[in-house]
């Protein structure tokens, strides 16, 4: 199956089945920054961070942060916000904390570091 954002249909989340060629809409909102696990899809929208089952059921709003650069790692979501913060949201406790007060873009992670681009150039944050 291929999960994608359909620009033709309001940037909503879709799934395309490669065996049956069936295309199904999974949500009714703008969808960006998808992270897919075995049973859930985590994504950002214009009003926060959400998750939904891979079948389109059980959509849940996890945060009202306007997020970008969403990365899922070890049951935590790492992201930057429109308030120039980089945060982590623990999916077990549903709590978030600020990692650093600098807007980041083009984030990537290793086991030990977050690499990001800021207004001051390319940077590395030690986890």
Number of helices: 0
Which segments are poorly predicted (pLDDT under 50) over 5 or more consecutive residues?
A: none
Which percent range fits the helix content?
under 10%
SSE-based structural type = mainly beta
Main beta sheet: 4 strands, antiparallel
Rounded mean pLDDT score: 90
**Helix-strand pattern:** EEEEEEEEEEEEEE
Separation, N- and C-terminal Cα atoms: 33 Å
What percent of residues are in strands?
Answer: over 45%
The largest sheet has its strands arranged as 4-5-6-7
Number of strands: 14
Radius of gyration equals 15 Å
Would you summarize the structure shown here?
This protein has 127 residues and is mainly beta. Helices cover 0% and strands 59% of the residues.
Task: Set out the fold topology.
Layout: E1 2-6, E2 12-16, E3 23-25, E4 32-36, E5 40-45, E6 48-53, E7 60-63, E8 67-73, E9 76-81, E10 86-90, E11 95-100, E12 105-109, E13 113-118, E14 121-126
Antiparallel strand pairs: 1-2, 2-3, 4-5, 5-6, 6-7, 8-9, 9-10, 10-11, 12-13, 13-14
